[in-house]
Amino acid sequence: xxxxxxxxxxxxxxxxxxxxxxxxxxxxxxxxxxxxxxxxxxxxxxxxxxxxxxxxxxxxxxxxxxxxxxxxxxxxxxxxxxxxxxxxxxxxxxxxxxxxxxxxxxxxxxxxxxxxxxxxxxxxxxxxxxxxxxxxxxxxxxxxxxxxxxxxxxxxxxxxxxxxxxxxxxxxxxxxxxxxxxxxxxxxxxxxxxxxxxxxxxxxxxxxxxxxxxxxxxxxxxxxxxxxxxxxxxxxxxxxxxxxxxxxxxxxxxxxxxxxxxxxxxxxxxxxxxxxxxxxxxxxxxxxxxxxxxxxxxxxxxx
Length: 303
Hints:
Layout: H1 2-16, H2 33-42, H3 49-61, H4 76-111, H5 116-130, H6 133-147, H7 164-193, H8 196-203, H9 208-245, H10 251-260, H11 264-292
Helix pairs in contact: 1-11, 4-5, 4-7, 4-9, 5-7, 6-7, 6-9, 7-9, 9-10, 9-11, 10-11
Subcellular location: Cell membrane
Main location: membrane
Membrane topology: Multi-pass membrane protein
């Protein structure tokens, strides 16, 4: 995990410096030459690139993500602490709604195989994968805000903390998740239902609820858990477009601004957070396997 994160940090550090443009060029354009040099010296941009790299790694090992090049006087950590909870709220709501709805639809489709509920769920799944998130977001804005005036169209208002401001972004962000989990869970449930131990359980007269939960549900969840871990981090990346459309002052909007402004330290700080979350989520998935399926053991028994 540590090696992977180190490779990502190193790669992003050098890649962002290959992008044309200078983060301080526009800020120091009309200033005297000496003051420009002072700006570059303050942020270490006057030193060789390899020296900048080792200086950044040294600060990073001390827990310092550096100071933003665009938001003068504000550290990357402080900006992330403000923006990350906003994105986390939207993304966790979307993930919970998407997983719950997807599992329910997948179970319905599997139990009504080759009947109209199955066809309806598969249509929703195909639409969820095919329709881009920005199309879904603008459609929701038009119908629920412009046409019917039921919900606010943007999230950045004085009363943003109200739940109603998060409904449309949550639905727009969770639509693809619903489609993915419905398809995976349907296929997984159908595979489990064809196993011999299911036929044995039915022959023993096990009730429908116990059958669905203990024999079908747990075993069918393994493929779902596999894609759940990466999606926890991936959904933050997917929210960049949604946050821009709904004007949500979250992680995604700041990330896009950092790229446009060539804010190197901000890009690196947010990339470290996203990749760290992604790597940890994969590790947690491996641990959860052992809890869901007793056949999978994390630790070897002694003796």
